[in-house]
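Listing S7. Sequence submitted for prediction.
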Amino acid sequence: MRLTLRVWRQRDAGAEGAMATYTVDGASPDMSFLELLDTLNEDLLLRGEDPVAFDHDCREGICGACSMVINGEAHGPERTTTCQLHLRSFHDGDTIDVEPWRAAAFPVVRDLVVDRSALDRIIQAGGYISVPTGSAPEAHATPVAKPDADRAFEHAECIGCGACVAACPNGSAMLFTSAKVNHLNVLPQGAPERETRVLGMVAAMDEEGFGGCTLAGECATACPKGIPLPSIAAMNREWLRAARRTAG
């Protein structure tokens, strides 16, 4: 396959960025999109040029690091992570635009790399369960109803890639935050802190400069792990309940 890549190049957060055009020959349909970028970078290094900076880690669709917009879609045309997107999703001779996440809360660090630490700070505001130190409790010590366990696992699948933010026309992090709130709040272990958790994490989300949610639904469409849109409604109910109790 012969592919033309139009890639966003930006030296650092303070520099002006622009699209640069490259051609990659001999790409295989079985290559992942990250392997295509690896091939491009090998060619650039051989020519004495700076390689394209992009985030990656596990390359197994688990870590959520490979964040980029491909032809205007978060992670590309398939509902998966960029590392699991293969070139068979494209055609020989295609021109492909590759850009970083576009959101005020995700400043560009270099090229396709953005600073997603705002998501970490949301988790730090309440995405945990406070427990005494010591040995792990017996697995069956706290029974969990099957429907609650299923809901918790459904939301715990969120890998924090930020595709929901990049896809949202408002740059909202509501789907991410709701996944992190709900997967703990539905468990009995998370019940004691459920109110402080949702209030703290929503406040942290607002402080980071993410946009407001208008339920456009693009976030759930782009999510590679299928976090459902009703997750946001469930978190909103949790937040209203907690806010009323705090105000009262």
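Caption to Listing S7: primary sequence and predicted structure tokens for the chain studied. The mean pLDDT is 95. The radius of gyration is 20 Å.
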